[in-house]
Amino acid sequence: MTNPAQTGPITAASVPSRVTPSAGSRTAPSIGPRTAPSIGPSGAPNTEPRTAPNTEPRTGSRSAQRRVIRAQHQDIDDKPFIVIWEVTRACQLVCKHCRADAQTRADPRQLSTAQGKALLDDIARWDTPRPLVVLTGGDPFERADLAELVAYGTAAGLSVALSPSVTPKFTAERLAELHRAGAKAVSLSLDGARPQTHDAFRGFEGTYAATRRAATTVRDEGLRLQVNTTVTRDNVHELPQLLGDVLEMGVGLWSVFFLVPTGRGEHLGALAAEEVEDVLHWLADVSSLVAIKTTEAPQYRRVVIQRAAARASNLPLPVTGPLHDQLVADTVEVLGHEIVPTRVPRPPIDVNAGRGFVFVDHTGDVYPSGFLPFRCGSVKDAGLRRIYRESPILRSLRRPEEFGGSCGRCEFRDVCGGSRSRAYAVTGDLLGADPSCVWQPGAVAPATSVAGLPATAVAGLPAVGPSAAGGPGDTIGSAPWPE
C-alpha cells in the first residue's frame, strides 16, 4: 500500500489497478510533486500558499483544522453566508442546462434600481462579516444600471461579484467600469474542453473561443476569476482536459456543478451516484492544483473528511470505480508524467440551500436556491433579513436531523445535508434523501468518518453523530464564492 504521506511522483504507468481493500476503504493513486514547472493560478489573487508537501492535510497539526472543512462564522439561523441575486432574467444565450427559462428581453416586473438598492441596504444591515453578494441572471450585463448597483452595494460595505454570460455585451470597457464600481470577482462558464462541447451547451457557435478571450480580459483587468463547469455524462470525460484549461487560464477557483434535472437541464444526462462519487474523489485528487468547490454536491465535504480521516489512521482511502481510474490516468496524460501540488487544498465550507445560501429572483421573490421552486416571500413585501430568519421553509432546511431517509440518519448530515435541489427534483421530497449520494450511514468503522480524526483536525466542525469529535466554530476568513 502507498504510504499516506508519500509525495513522490507518479506517472500514467504507475497508476495502480483497482484492488479489493478491506471493507469501507479504497486505494487511490497519490498525486505527488512533478519536476516540470508548476502549473497553477499564476498571478491569481489568492492568499493561500502556492506550494504544499502533500495533497492531503497533516491532521496532527493546529493548521489541520483549516484543511478539512470550514464551518460558517455566523449563526446560520440569523444570516446567510452568501446571497445570490438574479438581477434580470434577460439573456441572449440558450443554455441546455439552465434552471430558468431565460428570455431575450427584461421582465417588466424585475426589481427597479431603487428596489435593488433597497435590497442591498437590507443585506448591508447584517453585522460583519456581511453576506457575500453575487449578481447573476439571466445575464446581469443586460442591465444598464449594473455599475450603479455594484457601486451602491460596495459603498454599503458589501463584497460584490458578477456572474455574466459571454455575449457581445461582455466587453473590456464594461468590465473596467464594473471594476471601478467595486466588483471583486467574475465567474465564467466553461462546460467543455472542446469548442463543440461548450458551444452545444450554450446554444451558439463561437462561445467557447469567446469565453477563453473573456477569461483573459477578466485577468487583465485584475479581477478574480472563477470558472463554472456543469458536469453531465456527455462531458465528464473532458474534465482532465478542462483542468488543463483552467490551470492555463490562471483561474482562482474552479466551481464544478453537478447537474440538477430541472428546467432545461431536465433532459440532459445526469451522472449516476457511483459516477458522482468517482468525480468527487478525482476533484479531491486535483484540489492541490487549483481551488475546488462543488455546487449541488455537498457530499464532497464528506469525501474530504473521509480521506483525511483515513490518512490520519494510516488506512487506504475508500474504494472508487472505473470512472475515477480513467480520470486519474487522463489527468496524468494531460498534465505530464508527474504532477506537482501548487497549493494547499481549499477546504470546502458547509453551506447548503437555505442554510447559509439564499436566492433572490429578478422579481424579488426569495427561494432557498435557484433550483428549488419554494417561494419563501418577497423582498418587496418584507426585508430579506426577516424572510431568511422566519421562513418556515428556510428554517426546515437548517434542521438536517429532521431530513428523511439516509440524509436524516447520516453521521455527516450537519456538514453535508445532501443536495436538497436534487432530492426534490428526483423524488419530489424537499427533505428527502439525496439520490446522488452512495454513502450508507454507519456502513464503516468510525476510523473513516469524522470520529477517526484527531481532535485538532476537526476543531471547528459541528458534531455529526454521537461518537464524533467536535469543537467551537471555525474562524477562517470568508471565501470569495459560495459552496
Give the end-to-end Cα distance, rounded to a whole number of Å: 33 Å
Cα gyration radius (Å):
21 Å
Helix/strand structural class: alpha/beta
The helix fraction, in percent, is 25-40%
Summarize the structure.
With 483 residues, this protein is α/β, with parallel strands linked by helices. It has helices spanning 113-124, 146-155, 172-181, 195-202, 207-221, 239-248, 273-286, 299-312, 322-335, 384-390, 392-397, 405-409, 420-427, 455-458, and strands at residues 82-86, 132-136, 160-162, 185-189, 224-231, 253-258, 292-295, 352-353, 356-360, 365-367, 377-378. The two termini are 33 Å apart.
Any descriptors?
alpha/beta, 11-stranded mixed sheet, 14 helices, single chain, 483 residues
Q: What does this entry look like structurally?
A:
It is built from 14 helices and eleven strands. By secondary structure, the protein is α/β, with parallel strands linked by helices. Strands 1, 2, 3, 4, 5, 6, 7, 8, 9, 10 and 11 form an eleven-stranded mixed beta sheet that branches. Helix 2 packs parallel to helix 3, helix 6 runs parallel beside helix 9 and helix 7 packs across helix 8.
